[in-house]
Amino acid sequence: MKTEDRKQAIADYKKRAAVAGVFAIRCRATGEVWVGQALDLAKIENRIWFTLRMGSHRNAELQRAWTAHGADNLSLETLERIEDEELAYVRDTLLKERVQHWRAELNAFAA
Fold it and tell me: Which of 13, 21, 26, 31 has the most other CB atoms within 10 Å of its CB?
């Protein structure tokens, strides 16, 4: 890849719109579900998987599931997208409401 192409690819990546939303992490081995929110759904799996691999995820139960059953038994899925919400406080309030809805709906823990 040429330097100009690489620079353009990086610039395009930085300009992309982040999509906020609600996600679920499921453990196939135990059936447990964790639900959380992210300001950028495209990046959340890498962030969570990194902390789990390092053994430093803030949710002890999720970390235990990762350690006991491994990455192959955990999956992350998007439950809901919050697109085109320009006002941060409206987006944040909506995310909190939807996370509560999905935790109740799925009988899930906080991610």
Answer: 21
Task: Give the phi and the psi of residue 42 in degrees, each rounded to 5.
Answer: -65, -25
Number of neighbouring beta carbons within 10 Å of residue 59: 18
* Token code pair at residue 73: 């038994």
Is 86 in contact with 70 (CB distance < 8 Å)? no
Count the alpha carbons within 13 Å of 19 in the hemisphere toward its beta carbon. Answer: 10
Going residue by residue through the chain (111 aa), what tens digit of pLDDT does each one get?
678 877 776 666 566 678 999 999 999 999 999 999 999 999 999 999 999 999 999 999 999 999 999 999 999 999 999 977 778 889 999 999 999 999 999 999 999
Residue 77, Cβ density class (10 Å: 0-12 exposed, 13-18 middle, ≥19 buried)? exposed
Look up tokens 């639900």; give the residue.
35
